[in-house]
Specification:
By secondary structure, this protein is α/β, with parallel strands linked by helices. Helix content is about 45%, strand content about 15%. The strands form six sheets. It has a five-stranded parallel beta sheet with strand order 2-1-3-6-7, with helices on both faces. A five-stranded parallel beta sheet has the order 9-10-13-8-14. It has a two-stranded antiparallel sheet with strand order 4-5.
Length: about 450
């Protein structure tokens, strides 16, 4: 694995603090980092590390988890409280998943497992020393795809800024159409991996018999039809970010394999005799309740524990009603530009209708509505009739109060229908023909119902 020496900022000496109570480990890390052109200070204890941090300025701190007078977690907490711009990476014992996740939750930049792979160490150091500056961070609010000034969207932007400075896995939750992939892209663009690949994967769209080869790649001759070597998603995303959309759709056998790759940071291509190091940050997303899936045995608890280190919830559009005008204007400008026409304006009545519509499909539904209106409009303005908005519920249709949300009868029936289809697909390993038979409907009927419920993505 080839890793470039981090670029030295003009007039700045890049310094790293190494904290480990074993002299031979300190010497190995010191030598490796010095060969990368870095200045290194070594501390044998937590108290000595505190002394160094009080006297010098560092661009990275690398600490063992177990120290004679404390733990690496103590150091992570101290740095986050007093030196928030200093990335801290921890070295954990082999297979110590709990320590690694605990460190990431406390705010550690990343972790390494013993025995330390020097290739992984060099990659980690390079990423840590290329963290974006505060100037780059401030641009997140200006990104046109994360528009809005509602408290909910502002909170999302603030959390994105914070998590972008870590390598911790992120679990993005939210309803379909709420912008989960856009949030993942923003985390990537603000991170030290911004110049590396961002690879999105729809886990629900891959046939189960192809999953291992798609994720991990294969060697020539590994199976019939493998005429050449091929990289998988992990190799394609090496050095960057792998976005696993609808991760809850992964079958259990693939969940086991994914967990191992995340823990070991190594993958083996089908037909390959050895494993290769991979340096990938995992961001996953789903519209399903992962905790509920864990409770019923449909998703592995240990994998959920590793993926859900940082949770980012995307707000519903109906929670950001005040953002609809600026979102609508931006969407119309983009659609009109693509069509080569002048962007139309929304009448006051049309804008009011949009703001009062529930938008169960969130921003995606708003975009679809405006795209249809753009095609139907006859003048320079979009009228209420052009929007063709369906009423939130028919007159006289009873509603059911659930928590703070009001659900119509149709909403409730759709929810039940969607759940039954998901369970049938899970039981049949996404075989739609078998799922239709299990549900007592035709294949065509199942396909129609999935399309109506927006379950084909």
């Amino acid at each position: 694995m080839s890793v470039k020496t981090p670029r030295r900022r003009q007039g700045e000496i890049l310094r790293v603090l190494v904290v480990d109570d074993e002299a031979d480990i300190r010497e190995l890390l010191d030598l490796t980092l010095a060969r990368m052109g870095l200045a290194v200070d070594c501390a044998a204890s937590l108290s000595e590390a505190y002394d160094f941090l009080g006297k010098n300025s560092y661009q990275l701190c690398l600490t063992d988890m177990r120290l004679g007078d404390g733990t690496g977690l103590d150091l992570v907490r101290y740095v986050n409280a007093n030196l928030s711009n200093l990335p801290v990476a921890v070295v954990t014992a082999y297979g110590s998943t709990e320590n690694a996740v605990a460190a990431l939750k406390e705010g550690a930049f990343d972790y390494l497992a013993k025995p330390v792979s020097l290739d992984q160490l060099r990659s980690l150091v390079q990423l840590a020393l290329e963290l974006p500056s505060g100037v780059a961070k401030s641009n997140v609010g200006q990104d046109k795809r994360l528009l809005g000034n509602s408290p909910a969207i502002q909170a999302v932007r603030e959390l994105i800024e914070r998590v972008a400075r870590s390598q911790a896995p992120v679990h993005i939750t939210g309803e379909s159409g709420s912008g989960k992939e856009l949030a993942a892209q923003q985390i990537h663009k603000l991170s030290a991996r911004r110049d590396r690949p961002f690879v999105p994967v729809n886990c629900g769209a891959i046939p189960e018999n192809l999953m291992e080869s798609e994720f991990f790649g294969y060697r020539k001759g590994a199976f019939t039809g493998a005429n050449d070597d091929r990289d998988g998603f992990f190799q394609a995303a090496n050095g960057g970010t792998l976005f696993l959309d609808e991760v809850a759709d992964l079958p259990l056998i693939m969940q086991v394999k994914l967990l191992r790759v995340i823990q070991e940071k190594r993958v083996r291509k089908l037909g390959a005799p050895t494993e290769d190091d991979v340096d990938v940050r995992i961001i996953c997303a789903t519209h399903q309740d992962m905790k509920a899936l864990v409770d019923v045995g449909k998703f592995r608890q240990d994998l959920f524990y590793r993926l859900n280190v940082i949770e980012l919830r995307m707000p519903l559009l109906r929670e950001c009603v005040e953002d609809i005008p600026v979102l609508a204007e931006h969407i119309l400008e983009r659609l009109a530009h693509s069509a080569g026409i002048r962007a139309p304006l929304l009448t006051k009545e049309a804008l009011s209708a949009l703001s009062s519509h529930p938008f169960s499909g969130n921003v995606r539904e708003l975009e679809n509505t405006l795209e249809r209106a753009l095609a139907l409009m006859s003048g320079n303005y979009i009228e209420v009739a052009d929007l063709n908005l369906r009423p939130s519920r028919a007159s006289g249709t009873p509603s059911i109060e659930i928590g703070h949300a009001v659900k119509t009868l149709q909403d409730t029936l759709d929810q039940v229908e969607r759940k039954m289809i998901q369970e049938a697909l899970f039981a049949t390993q996404n075989n739609r023909t078998a799922a239709a038979k299990m549900l007592g409907v035709t294949f065509r009927s199942l396909r129609y119902r999935m399309a109506r419920l927006d379950m084909n993505e």
